[in-house]
Write a structure and sequence with these properties.
The chain is an alpha/beta fold. The protein has helices spanning 21-29, 49-59, 83-93, 112-123, 172-177, 189-200, 221-228, 237-247, 253-274, 280-297, 317-331, 335-342, and strands at residues 8-14, 36-43, 73-78, 98-101, 107-108, 127-129, 132-135, 141-144, 151-154, 157-160, 168-171, 204-206, 212-215. It has two domains: 3-217, Spore Coat Polysaccharide Biosynthesis Protein SpsA, Chain A (Alpha-Beta Complex); 231-342, no CATH class. It is built from twelve helices and 13 strands. The strands form three sheets. It has a seven-stranded mixed beta sheet with strand order 3-2-1-4-11-6-12, with helices on both faces. Strands 5-13-7-8 form a four-stranded mixed beta sheet. α6 runs parallel beside α8 (237-247), α8 (237-247) packs parallel to α10 and α10 (280-297) packs antiparallel against α12 (335-342). 41% of the residues are buried. The mean pLDDT is 92.
């Protein structure tokens, strides 16, 4: 089967982005690779987003692709359920052999699909990842993230260590066969989804190409929780546990150690970054959850050989130091009191 015979579904969850949505859609229409299905999921947006989506679908109803049963642009209107709910709805509707997730305030360079689909088909990959191109709120170029920031080597095995769900394409059956979905009602859904996806396949490739344009928004939901603290009911307790359960034991001891390494780094980030300004009850709950998760799945994590206080490949030194401190606090049972004091500073 030729590259041009493969199809890709592009899932766009939409909520309160009327000023950016047209550019997002236009960037798909401008793709040099044309065998796509665009699924616009209006997540109960209270503005004109739903009307914008419907208008584009009507204006381009003549676009048809042989591999896609429905119109090339399909609009799903649903009650507001959050980003994960909208992505799951789009994933269920996806008809393409490949699928990707494009946020409605972001956009693609015109050759993004051509580059990623070409790589996926050439090497029969489950996942193709690209570094993000950061742009301003006005869409102006800021920087391309470095390829080296996305991976490190574990005993000769290259492994992704970043968790952005959007600058990627996935083989649709890979996601469905492994039951990969987004954890609804929780934040950091990208992190837990990508943790599982990264660990469940060895058939992936990181391109030296940046074509996914990520619009930086300091006032976005992630930025706001870094300032005020994440609420207890939005921490991905359920999603992270499910991702670990899904992956552990699938690919041998080395991969379990890599999973352990990645999980601990995620726990440290949640506790010391996102819970920094959370209330004491939330911090206590997060510490309790952390201990229970590690005792159940990774009771020997303090002896993981991949943690190195001297610095780790492609990992900022301060992150290595944070994990080193976390291990000491965990072993001495001082994690909770330290976290309470730290998050009050």
């Amino acid at each position: 089967m030729l590259v041009e015979d493969r199809s890709v579904s592009i899932v766009v969850p939409i909520y309160k982005t009327p000023q950016y949505l047209p550019q997002c859609i236009e960037s798909v229409l401008a793709q040099t690779y044309t065998h796509w299905q665009l699924i616009l999921v209006d997540d109960g947006s209270p503005d004109e987003c739903g009307e914008i989506a419907d208008r584009y679908a009507q204006q381009h109803s003549a676009i048809q692709h042989s591999a896609i049963q429905h119109d090339a642009i399909r609009v799903i209107h649903k009650p507001n359920g959050g980003l994960s709910s909208a992505r799951n709805a789009g994933l269920e509707a996806a008809e393409g052999e490949y699928v990707m997730f494009l946020d409605s305030d972001d956009f693609l360079e015109k050759d993004f699909l051509e580059k990623t689909i070409g790589a996926a088909v050439k090497d029969n990959l489950d996942m193709v990842v690209t570094p993000t191109r950061n742009v301003s709120a006005r869409g102006e170029f800021i920087e391309d993230l470095k390829r080296d920031e996305y991976w490190r080597t574990f005993d000769g095995k290259e492994q992704l260590i970043r968790y952005n769900v959007t600058p990627r394409i996935y083989r649709t059956e890979f996601l469905r066969e492994n039951g990969l979905r987004f954890s609804e009602g929780e934040l950091m859904e990208d992190v837990v989804f990508c943790l599982a996806a990264n660990m469940l396949t060895h058939r992936w490739r990181l391109l030296d190409y940046s074509g996914y344009c990520y619009r930086l928004n300091p006032e976005g939901i992630v930025g706001s929780f870094k300032k005020s603290g994440i609420p207890d009911n939005r921490i991905p307790y359920r999603g992270l546990r499910e991702a670990v359960r899904l992956v552990k034991g699938k690919n041998g001891r080395r991969d379990d150690r890599i999973l352990e390494y990645c999980t601990v780094r995620i726990l440290v980030t949640i506790l010391f970054v996102f819970c920094r300004k959370s209330d004491i009850k939330t911090v206590r709950h997060m510490c309790s959850y952390t201990r229970k998760l590690l005792e159940e799945y990774f009771p020997d994590f303090v002896h993981n050989p991949y943690f190195d206080v001297r610095g780790e490949e492609n990992v900022p030194r301060f992150q290595s130091l944070a994990v080193w401190l976390f291990k000491i606090l965990y072993r001495t049972r001082l994690l909770t009191p330290f976290a309470i004091v730290y998050t009050r500073l």
